[in-house]
Amino acid sequence: MSFTDRWFDPSKPPKAAIAIAIHMFAEVPLGWQKLFYETLNALVAVRTADRAFSLNYLAVEFENHQLEFDMPDPDRVLAGICRRCAQRSKSICQKCGRRGRLRMFNMTDAAVLCPRCAAPELLHRAIDDALTYPGLIAVAGRVESPQRVPEVLRGAFMRATEAGAMDARQFRKWLDELKRLKRMLPPVSVPNEADA
Predict the structure, then answer these.
(1) What is the predicted pLDDT for the residue at 162?
(2) Which of 3, 15, 158, 194 has the most CB within a 10 Å radius?
């Protein structure tokens, strides 16, 4: 396969065209690859000499929490195929392909994830916040109400205390348990913009 191969060339057999396109746009998240392949199939099915310019400058993007096929001057058919892909990607987990939704982790970090893929991300961030900003949970080292504990950690907090409150010693012990738990979690996969 050379750089002169043009995937959108109408004379190319569909399988060859798709193989070239997949090679060109290899960075698509795993969960969106099936949708990506289906969209490429649809674009290959409607390629003509008149659409060659638009398809030649096709760009595949997923920066805006959706799988977008962008091209200059698409006609209604090409625009419709691309729009349908972007719409469908908003409800497909970009990590595993199950049904998902846009999840905001903070003001800048977001991803389309299913509950299973979102859980470790949410847990990582809640533990990081508890360890980094313990004063948001405990006042003078003491936790008076479980409502101050992030929701994703509240069950663990309630199991660690009987009365729904902790003194400073219990709170430090609980934070140490969170540190140990964090080491066992899989690494985060949604980049934290604040760390970049």
Answers:
(1) 72
(2) 158
CB 55 within 8 A of CB 81: no
Other C-beta atoms closer than 10 Å to the C-beta of 30 total: 11
For the chain (196 residues), the mean pLDDT of every run of 10, in chain order, is: 62 82 82 94 91 88 90 94 96 96 85 92 89 87 84 86 81 91 82 55
Contact 24, 44 (CB under 8 A): no
- CA–CA gap between residue 122 and residue 120 (Å, rounded): 5
For residue 72, the 8-state DSSP code is: S
Specify whether the backbone of 60 is left (phi greater than 0), alpha (psi in -120 to 50) or beta: beta
Please give the structure tokens belonging to residue 21. Answer: 């396109």
What is the length of the chain? 196
Segment (H or E) for 107: none
Residue 104 contacts by C-beta under 8 Å, 6 or more apart in sequence?
A: 110
Q: Where are the domains of the chain?
A: 14-89, 115-191
